[in-house]
Backbone:
């Protein structure tokens, strides 16, 4: 069974050509983030991903996490893998130095995170949620909460969870019913059932810190009456040692299509009188706080999509190289590897070009996060944040929908062998299928995109992107190169189609939100595809320039030109089609009678 | 857990409006095939599918088939279900009356077959392969072979298999190595290993009749040296009773992503000296015979796609009706079922409109099979057969690729619940994922389409389809109805794009087959989408006419108009995009260096 191999060369290409690393490392707090440091970290992270996390992936899938009498055991070897992960300091990579983190810029940690996802997404999703809990406590926790929980969460000695969903409250958090009753000592008794809690119970660490949405007595109905509570599995004594077991119990774990290594828990809070918790931040602002974590988590789930695409691509490519079947078209009677067959090459290039586009977009967004966080200029911070806000639903929705398609192609390239579980290709599809669902379905992301991110500012943020695309189109036209010009033409057509759709959204949302909503997912796909074309267009320009200067690896750089060429012909061409759907009369969707479905 | 419900009303609509049932029942041998008979059969088949096959589907998935010491047990209840299936005469539905079949026209049996697939595809795939064996023996078997095997295969007392694949010979059957050595008594000793043999071993029947591809001594290399053999699991005595156990052994069964109820066997022939077999038809014509079965099987796998789409749609629709979450856009604060949310409606209409399009196309192709088989006029027979030949790779490739998309949407509509296996939505995706692979991958279908079905006759057969589309476009324009006109415009754009692509294929195939092959799958998708638009366009015309005449169920007929409207806006709009990919410079696919993948 082949192991994951971090695509270091591709990652470096993105960092060197699509991101201004000089600018990032000039930001306060990121002074150490040089290209050399990035290289060293990537090298070590790649080794860890390939050597430790990837070999745990199969056993995680086959044996999965198991539940017995309220206790959950992770798959054999996972505890040791987790300990090595923490011992290597990987857990703290992008956390704040104040609590023991390394404070690496997001642009670097995002690529490392892609590696964890590529090697073992069922493992890395637990890390990701702990980071979410860390961010929430950093941002909204009291000093006491910070000092109690943060150092041990940052080191990985404990893990964290996000407890939002209840049986009747999935996408609609206004329906949350869990109760939190204040106690004389300032704590709360938390009661209620939470479902779909990732790593809600496990044996990796001695304690688990649950962040829980619940309602205080008399809180307003709906989302305005939800508060956030920290509820540790074991209470923590003043000296930091573990005290009594809290009244939270894992009732069961789910039997899922994929990510079997990741325990998805049903948690009962307060079956024996109430779990002891403490309010985080202010009363009734829980949803707001959760959304801060949620945005980070959504971006991270996008990276899961990227990692899964890369992993599935690598496996399919290796199989296509090894598997001898048939003869070359127009060649002699010699049997060849299937990588020589045009349709297999088409599928590999679909996988590869989309993966590169997803990675490039996610990395550029991560760079904007760093600028939004640390740039000295307020206007730059604000514009960077607006770009991040615009792109988070796109990175989430488009990367994960792509991951389903790409991993499905990975199965297809294997033929019958892809359907046999031992091959490993099918696991990637099974694992990928959750990503367009959790942390907000694609429909939720698309609603966020068209409503809050496009209509609300009258299309200002997305038009700035379209202007940048126009600049790239002009640059692609300048050298009078056949391939670059072809890329320019496709990119321009796509951005015109997107522009028309943006206009439609902006003009229509106020008076007919339903009609916009009916096309919101196609809209999200368009934005993703155009953003991918924008970044691959920039990659193409960079490769062209390096080739002209005679610097760099010629074959590698030429492959970048060809990946872009393929992408604009086979992916970007879909943008005008999606615009037709967005702009079409949506009365069929509105008028179809419910009872005729 | 909800059970499958046969979409009788939709099926009747197709039969009454898209197929000339009067013509079919005027064909020799099909005189009894009235609309009334169809109605009665559909009703009973629907009951059997819902009442017997559907309840066996979940246990088939959970417990699957199990292997022990060379014996395979099907899941609990499956043997009884199979016996009821045979006792009901369902096995013999479309078989020739000469051997005990009912000789129903394909246009009716195909819709019944869709029901079996919708209810339990892991069950029905075994039936389908037995029918393949029946067809091969009917067509090429000796009288003795026919009388020995056919009555018991037709009744279902025994089942049949197709043994093509070997570890080194999947899509490329020229690499088949199994040996068949002639014996003095006219029989052959068959030796070799076959893999991926659907229902290659099981406990449903006392005997299994294997049809096996193997090479005789001194046979030419490649596909011209393959012969077909019949190798029963138990030899058959002259009186029809079972004799000695033959030298064929089930070494193992595969652990697959889906269709767990269907045992996929590795079979070893001749480990103890040679399995006794008899040649079917003439020496070295085995591949030709297999392709006759294969074409029937490919069409049938297309029907698996249709059945899976329908099943997945039903489950998603029922969930969307039941699941209350959020409030209606622009409505009051009342919580509503998610079927009210525009994006959920969009997904349901994607599922529904594609399912209806697939069913309509498959049924029209089945009607052409009947005419090709039984029409008294030779020219009609020939043209019908040419249409069938053109469409088989499309029905196979497009229905199955659609099934993967549609069942994936089925999971998505369920949100987090879709990822939990108990819900059942994920099983449909897992089951569907084999369909674009077995009986020839989509790449193989697409190669067949562009090479043998389009380029070889200079595009004649597909241009006849395009002419029919033009007629429908003209009819849609005539009534000056807004919806019909919109459908006409979309259908015309799509058919123009397809026409350009056909021209490209015809002009290019001879001199640059690779360049055509690089776009062959997009080409197949285009043909499928346009064929779907053609049939839904006809459905739209029929519904419009019935509504105008004031006959029929108004709400139902209006839903047909809206389904078509949705399809042309959200599916057919992709055709011009696919044409761009087909017509694009494919040098990126050809020139990408193998070592840069």
Residues:
């Amino acid at each position: 069974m082949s192991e994951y191999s971090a695509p270091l060369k591709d990652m470096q290409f993105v960092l060197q050509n699509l991101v201004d690393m000089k600018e990032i490392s000039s930001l306060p707090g990121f002074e150490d983030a040089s290209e050399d440091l990035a290289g060293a970290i990537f090298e070590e992270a790649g080794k860890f991903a390939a050597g430790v996390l990837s070999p745990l992936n199969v056993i995680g899938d086959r044996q999965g996490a198991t539940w017995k009498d309220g206790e959950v055991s992770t798959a054999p070897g996972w505890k040791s893998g987790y300990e090595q992960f923490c011992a290597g300091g990987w857990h703290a990579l992008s956390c704040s130095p104040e609590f023991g983190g390394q404070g690496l810029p997001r642009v670097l940690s995002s690529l490392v995170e892609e590696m964890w996802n590529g090697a073992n997404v069922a493992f890395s999703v637990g890390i990701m949620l702990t980071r979410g809990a860390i961010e929430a406590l950093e941002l909204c926790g009291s000093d006491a909460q910070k000092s109690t929980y943060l150092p041990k969460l940052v080191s990985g000695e404990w893990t964290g969870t996000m407890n939002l969903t209840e049986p009747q409250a999935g996408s609609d958090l206004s329906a949350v019913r869990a109760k939190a009753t204040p106690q004389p000592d300032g704590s709360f008794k938390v009661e209620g059932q939470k479902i779909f809690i990732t790593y809600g119970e496990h044996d990796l660490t001695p304690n688990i810190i649950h962040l829980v949405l619940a309602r205080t007595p008399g809180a307003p109905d709906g989302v305005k009456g939800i508060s956030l509570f920290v509820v540790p599995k074991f209470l923590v004594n003043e000296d930091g040692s573990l005290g009594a077991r809290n009244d939270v119990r894992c009732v069961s774990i789910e039997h899922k299509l994929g990510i079997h290594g990741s325990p998805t828990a049903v948690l009962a809070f307060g079956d024996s009188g109430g779990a002891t918790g403490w309010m985080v931040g202010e009363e009734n602002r829980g949803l707001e706080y959760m959304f801060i974590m949620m945005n980070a988590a959504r971006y991270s789930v996008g990276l899961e999509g990227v990692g899964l695409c890369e992993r599935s691509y690598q496996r399919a490519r290796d199989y296509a190289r090894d598997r001898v079947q048939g003869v070359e078209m127009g060649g002699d009677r010699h049997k060849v590897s299937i990588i020589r067959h045009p349709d297999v090459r088409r599928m590999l290039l679909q996988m590869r070009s989309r993966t590169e586009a997803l990675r490039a977009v996610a990395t550029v967004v991560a760079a904007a996060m760093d600028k939004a966080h640390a740039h000295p200029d307020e206007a730059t911070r604000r514009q960077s944040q607006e770009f991040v806000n615009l792109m988070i639903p796109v990175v989430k929705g488009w990367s994960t929908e792509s991951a389903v398609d790409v991993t499905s192609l990975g199965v297809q390239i294997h033929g019958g062998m892809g359907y046999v579980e031992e091959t490993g290709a099918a696991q990637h599809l099974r694992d990928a299928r959750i990503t367009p669902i959790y942390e907000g379905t694609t429909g939720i992301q698309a609603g966020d995109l068209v409503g809050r991110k496009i209509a609300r500012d009258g299309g200002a943020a997305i038009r700035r992107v379209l202007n940048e695309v126009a600049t790239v189109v002009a640059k692609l036209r300048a050298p009078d190169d056949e391939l670059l010009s072809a890329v320019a033409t496709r990119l321009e057509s796509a951005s015109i189609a997107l522009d028309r759709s943006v206009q439609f959204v902006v003009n229509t949302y106020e008076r007919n939100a339903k009609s916009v909503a009916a096309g919101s997912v196609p809209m999200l796909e368009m934005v993703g595809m155009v953003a991918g074309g924008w970044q691959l267009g920039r990659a193409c320009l960079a490769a062209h320039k390096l080739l002209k200067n005679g610097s760099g690896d010629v074959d590698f750089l030429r492959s970048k030109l060809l990946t872009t060429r393929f992408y604009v012909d086979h992916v970007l061409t879909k943008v005008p089609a999606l615009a037709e759907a967005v702009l079409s009369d949506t009365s069929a969707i509105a008028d179809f009678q419910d009872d005729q479905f």
Remarks:
- Chain B is about 55% helix and 10% strand.
- Chain B touches chain A through 99 residues (CB under 8 Å).
- Residues 165 and 172 of chain B are 9 Å apart (CA to CA).
